[in-house]
Amino acid sequence: MRTALATAAAIRAGETTALAETEAAIARIEAGDAEINAVVVRDFDRARAAAKALDEAGPDDRAFFGVPMTVKESFDVAGLPTSWGFEEHADHIAQADAVAVERMKAAGAVILGKTNVPVGLADLQSNNPNYGRTRNPHDHARVSGGSSGGAAAALAAGYVPIEIGSDIGGSIRVPAAFCGVWGHKPTYTALNPDGHYFPRTDLVRLALSVIGPMAADPDDLAAELAVLADMPLPKPPARDPGDWHVLLLPEHPVARVQDTIKQAIFDVGDAFADAGARVDRASDFLPDLVEQYGHYMHMLNVAMTRGQPQDGRPAPTLDDWFMLQAAQDRNVRAWQRLFHTYDAVIAPAWGTTAFPHDDTPIADRRLDIDGEDTQFGLQLAYPGLATFPMLPATSVPVGRDADGLPIGVQVIADANQDFTAIAVARAAHDLVWSDQ
């Protein structure tokens, strides 16, 4: 399968057509998705009609002219269901496209359908009563991640080259890491989430939540970010790998990490250092990560439950919320000071590679990490590194573990330096990736 940018270039050159590329993508889905179950809402007839219309109008210079893609089920696409995996919303049909979908269509993309999610976008695996379970293309006994698990699986299976996801607790970065593809959690204010709301509502934007691009190729990821961004984000000048200053954060103080992931981060750091980069393994500029984790989990819980009482605990008060915002502001300033020194921080996206399917409730779920039984929920510390301070982070594949499962790490950059995160991630990948 060509990259998205290469596909558009081939169509412009007359080597193929939008309809031919659409038919090829449909054939890949129909041939391979019965077991993986990534593309759960299929809109093939309208996709064919859209591709034919593009061919009849003639190729142009739009970035994704004629490129077939899918989008996460939680985004509104006019005429298609948006249920977020809730059984009671299975019959909800969107009346208009989400802004992100509008922008991808305006850039020439052809929407084939929608990809699977967990119920309420509230798990790191994708399984729900409407569409069933999505399986990791690398090992069907393992999760593809969540909540953008169908999106990551569709990319990893080679169905489509680009996707759109969303992220509040790692929902772009973790599936990308589990499936060996690229995903970018943008700066909080960089992309418009309109049309990515709880079914049958028009809620205000959730605290911490963002939408973002996913792709099988870093050039496609960057081009997709440029299309989706509300305004132009600054791009760093071209640099050699040895020109960066990076901080390694191989393990969080509250959450264990698989040894192979920790070693992968050290390998990335060694490769940067060998190229001449400045690489640190510790820094006094890091904020109190234990405190950050506590505040992040509190804010995440309030956002995901929309402030409703949970498990007998009282609902948060207005004073609680103001105190959380104050803590977040202090955390943001701490990270800003760190990025006066560093271009990027490289950390795990999650403490394990893709884990076996497990429908135990998250509060009770456990993870085996190198033979040690650990609490699943503590792993949210890793996505929270970038989410709580509202920073951009790119998930990048850098290797495989002993079971052949992809290892992905996240590259975190300063606010609005989204393209720096992608550039450092690309350098990391190129430095360590051989024919994995």
Write the layout of secondary structure elements.
Blueprint: H1 4-12, H2 18-36, E1 39-42, H3 44-57, E2 68-72, H4 99-106, E3 110-115, E4 127-128, E5 132-133, E6 135-136, E7 139-143, H5 149-156, E8 162-167, H6 173-179, E9 182-185, E10 210-215, H7 218-228, E11 245-248, H8 259-274, E12 278-280, H9 289-305, H10 318-338, E13 344-348, E14 366-369, E15 372-375, H11 381-387, E16 393-400, E17 406-412, H12 418-432
Helix pairs in contact: 2-3, 5-6, 8-12, 9-10, 9-11
Structure characterization notes:
The chain has helices spanning 4-12, 18-36, 44-57, 99-106, 149-156, 173-179, 218-228, 259-274, 289-305, 318-338, 381-387, 418-432, and strands at 39-42, 68-72, 110-115, 127-128, 132-133, 135-136, 139-143, 162-167, 182-185, 210-215, 245-248, 278-280, 344-348, 366-369, 372-375, 393-400, 406-412. It has 436 residues and is of the alpha+beta class. Helix 9 (289-305) packs across helix 10 (318-338) and helix 9 crosses helix 11. 35% of the residues lie in helices and 18% in strands. Strand 14 and strand 15 form a beta hairpin. The strands form five sheets. It has an eight-stranded mixed beta sheet, with helices on both faces. The protein has two domains: 4-228, Amidase signature (AS) domain (Amidase signature (AS) enzymes, Alpha-Beta Complex), CATH 3.90.1300.10; 241-432, Amidase signature (AS) domain (Amidase signature (AS) enzymes).
